[in-house]
Amino acid sequence: MEARGSRRRQLPVLLLWVNGLMMLGFAGACQQTELCNESLMLEKLPTCGKSFEEMMKKVDSKKWCNLTEFIMYYDNFTQCTEREANNASCFWPNPLAEGFITGIHKQFFSNCTSEKVHWEDPPDEILITLILIPVMLTCAMITLVVWCSKRSDIL
């Protein structure tokens, strides 16, 4: 019985000790972080752009708006920019990398505007039919339920 009480008193001490060890570990991890070397990242990102440009030369410029034609090239470009940002100890995406990627988009995809679909209402005959069918079906179902509930001998 005394051993159980002794363990209960030791538990908070043990928890404080474990918490202290964890906090020391987190503090050490925070001290080891490096600052982002933006100039190195900006120096390396153009190599990703040049590689993407070389790959896009294989695609007909008329097909540049069709993502399925160059999705692998774009994926390689994205991975390259992420890798170079990480090598420079920068998070990704960051404003500088986004600016570079936006420049690439302007270079290759500036003519790719989405065509706006102009929606029109259907003709009145079709619209009235589409409204009346559910209303009539609802009325018919209500009538059927009321009629069956009054005729309990059928059920």
Automatic annotation (TrEMBL):
Chief place of localization: membrane
Membrane topology listed for this record: Single-pass type I membrane protein
GO molecular function, a single term: coreceptor activity
InterPro entries: RAMP (IPR006985), RAMP_sf (IPR038126)
One Pfam family of this chain: RAMP
A GO-annotated cellular component: plasma membrane
Protein's cellular compartments: Cell membrane
Keyword NAD: no
One GO term (biological process): G protein-coupled receptor signaling pathway
Annotated signal peptide: 1-29
Gene3D superfamilies according to UniProt: Receptor activity modifying family
Transmembrane segments: 126-148
KW Transmembrane helix (keyword) present: yes
Keywords: Cell membrane, Disulfide bond, Glycoprotein, Membrane, Receptor, Signal, Transmembrane, Transmembrane helix, Transport
PANTHER family, per database record: RECEPTOR ACTIVITY MODIFYING PROTEIN RAMP, RECEPTOR ACTIVITY-MODIFYING PROTEIN 3
Similarity comment: family membership: Belongs to the RAMP family.
Name of the protein described by the UniProt record: Receptor activity-modifying protein 3
Organism: Cisticola juncidis
